[in-house]
Amino acid sequence: MERIVKVGIVGCGGIANGKHLPSLKKLKEVQMVAFCDIKPDRAEKAKKEYGTEDARVYTDYKEMMEKEKEIEVIHVCTPNSSHSEITCCALYAGKHVLCEKPMAKTTEQAEAMLKAAKESGKKLTIGYQNRFRSDSLYLKAACEANELGEIYFAKAHAVRRRAVPTWGVFLDEEAQGGGPLIDIGTHALDLTLWMMDNYKPKSVKGSVYRKLADQKNTGNAWGDWDAEKYTVEDSAFGFITMENGATIILESSWALNTLDVKEAKTTLCGTLGGADMDDGLRINNIKHGKQNVEIPNLESGGVAFYEGEEINSDDMEAQSWIDAVIHDKEPLVKPEQAIVVTKILEAIYKSAETGETIYF
Ligand SMILES: NC(=O)c1ccc[n+]([C@@H]2O[C@H](COP(=O)([O-])OP(=O)(O)OC[C@H]3O[C@@H](n4cnc5c(N)ncnc54)[C@H](O)[C@@H]3O)[C@@H](O)[C@H]2O)c1
Fold first, then answer.
1. 44: CA distance to ligand 1 center in Å?
2. Residues contacting ligand 1 via CB (< 6 Å)
3. Is residue 76 left, alpha or beta, with left meaning phi > 0 and alpha meaning psi from -120 to 50?
4. Which atom, in ligand 1's list, is nearest to the CA of 264?
5. What's the angle, vertex CA 25, arms to CA 23 and CA 31, rounded to 5?
6. Cα angle 342-345-347, degrees, rounded to a multiple of 5
7. pLDDT in tens, 224-253
8. Whole-structure pTM over 0.90, yes or no?
9. Do residues 8 and 69 touch, judged by C-beta distance below 8 A?
10. What's the start-to-end Cα distance of the chain, in Å?
11. What is the dihedral angle through the alpha carbons of 12, 14, 16, 18, rounded to the nearest 10 degrees?
């Protein structure tokens, strides 16, 4: 008989409906059997659209973990402040967990998650779906083949000109732990560290700004934001040095007066070559004594994990994760890696607040 993985969803808002539910629905090995949201109508709606006929609906995730003995996998899709408590509860209830990014609001909370994963022996992964893009997978393969040599300088890009998310609790410091840095800077930094395969930061100097949040007629992609509710930064920048001497510059904004916008992208400079994702993936090197640029054809079949048909990164994340659960493999995004992202982001906020360089 085919192996079926029963999945429960906690948090049935934007990212659940935009990524998790449609991607899980495509997997024949998955049944979504329980939905939890503090707003019951959202859980009901998700159940109707994506759940099994007899799927259950909850407003309390603890009750869900207690009652749903058959659920193997929980997806945590709630605001950042609750990632840690819900993930720990699910792990200790014996479930594998995919938690949305960032891993947690603070390093302390992320450490509790790591501890819970170790103590329970269950799998934990974080929703960094940008790793599953075909350009990311190709670049990762190039890095693993040492085509760039030693990567000693990198930039992590998460820059929007005017795209402040105005729904949910994105502007609320308490619920999210910050603005663009923790929201989208997290993706760019995850990609960069993963490509460099370097998880040993030495120091961080950060600057955090709230310069545009009080302006009116904002030209924002999702309509004007409410300045009174805007308790997070609108841009943040970090200068990160690594133990091996490498440097990373992280730039993040939801609103910044610039035309140089790029998000969830990395620029890498190594001893043998470099790479950027500015206008599609480009790898630069020296060939036969001449400056050379390679532009891979990423449409040509599967890369890395799945041969053949190309699928989008959201679907690939879900497929790779459920595959790791079924075949007892390590997920691609490891919590030990995600916690380093959280540590660096927290240090950027701390450095900006104190004016000091933070040493790890
Ligand atoms: N991977 C990505 O690219 C990506 C994109 C967007 C958001 N996210 C992440 O997803 C998370 C949620 O963001 P969103 O845009 O879906 O927000 P959202 O506000 O649209 O949805 C969150 C949902 O969680 C519910 N909720 C809040 N606390 C809860 C609790 N204790 N128990 C059960 N339900 C609860 C809310 O009622 C809401 O329906 C955030 O951590 C965010 O960083 C990731």
1. 16
2. 10-16, 36-39, 42, 61, 77-80, 82, 100-101, 127, 129, 168-169, 183
3. beta
4. 3
5. 130
6. 110
7. 999 999 999 999 999 999 999 999 999 999
8. yes
9. no
10. 50
11. 140
